[in-house]
Amino acid sequence: xxxxNAFAAEILETSASGIANAATxxxxxxxxxxxxxxxxxxxxxxxxxYVQRVLELAAAVxxxxxxxxxxxAVWQHKAFLARGLDVAxxxxxxxxxxxxxxxxxxxxxxxxxxxxxxxxxxxxxxxxTADATELDPNDSSGAIALKYLAACLEGxxxxxxxxxxxxxxxxxxxxxxxxxxxxxxxxxxxxMWHTAEASIAEEHIVTEATRRLMALxxxxxxxxPDIGKTVVTAAxxxxxxxxxxxxxxxxxxxxxxxxLSLGPHVPAGDIAxxxxxxxxxxVVIAAMLTTQLKSLEASIAAVRSVTDQNVxxxxxxxxxxxxxxxxxxxxxxxxxxxxxxVEVGSAIVA
Length: 350
Fold this sequence. Notes:
Layout: H1 3-14, H2 16-29, H3 39-63, H4 66-82, H5 89-104, H6 107-126, H7 140-153, H8 157-168, H9 174-194, H10 200-217, E1 230-235, H11 243-254, E2 258-261, H12 268-277, E3 282-286, H13 293-306, E4 312-316, H14 318-321, H15 326-330, E5 334-335, H16 341-349
Parallel strand pairs: 1-2, 1-3, 3-4, 4-5
Helix pairs in contact: 1-3, 1-6, 2-3, 2-5, 3-4, 4-6, 5-6, 7-8, 7-9, 8-10, 9-10, 12-13
C-alpha cells in the first residue's frame, strides 16, 4: 500500500465531519435541489450523505481501488432513482466534494483523491442502467419468492416457511432454493425499503424468517460424504449482514465439508483464532460495504499471521462484487460470489 494513499485516507477519516459540512454548504450554495422539506432538513440530509461518501472514499483510497468508490457512486445513483429523487444530484454532489477537497487538503493528497472522484464521474456520465425487481411472477422461482415474501409481510412466517419447504421438495439442490427464492426475496425487500415501500421492521421480519427457514432447509437435502476438509466462514467486524456467509457455510456443509459459521461482526483476531483452533483448510470472509474493506484486509492478515501457508482464504461480499480482483491486493487466495464459493474454494484448497 502506498504511503501517500494511507496518509490521504487518514486525513479523510479524521476530517469526515468537517469535510461533509463544507461540501454541504458548497452544494446548497450552488443551487442544488434540497431533497427535503426545508433548508434545515436539506442540510441534515446532505451532511449525513457526505460523511458516508467521505468514509467510502477513504476506504477505497487506502487500498488503492478507484473502482470500489465508483461502484458506490453507481449504487447511490440507483438509490436516488428508486426513491424518486433527481439522479443529477449524484454527480453534482461528487463535484462539490471534489472542489471542497481541493480547497482543504494538501496538494499531494488532492492528486491522489482526484483520480477516484473523476473515475466515479466518468462511470456516471457513461450511463447507469437501473435494475428492475428480480422477482418475476411468470418465473417459477420468482413466483415462489413473491408468495414467500407476501406471507412474511402478512405476519404468517409459518405459512411462508411452508411455501418454500414445499418448493424445496422438488428443487434440485439447497443452492437452487437459496439462490432462486430466498436471495431474490431478500433483495426485493431491500429494494422496497429503499423506495419506502417497506419499513425497517418489515425488513427485519423477512430477514429473521429467512434465518429460521435456512435452519430448516439444511436438513431437507442430503449431504455429500465427509471429504475431511474444514471451512470457517465469517462476516468482518462492522458487517451485520450474515445471511450470505450463513448460506455459504450451508453450501459447504452440503458438499461434505465440516462447516463452521462465526456469523456477523466478527473481529479479525477472533476469525484468526477460530481458523487456527479448528484447523481450517479454508476461511471465507465477507464484507458488505466498501467501508469494511479495511476490516477485511485486517482479517486476512490476522489469519495469515497465526496459520500456515496451507490455509487458504476466500474473500466475498458485496463490497468486492464490482471490483472482484481486489482480493489480490487484500491478500486473499481468491474471490467468489455465494453461489460459486464451494467450487472456487475447493479449487484453491486442492
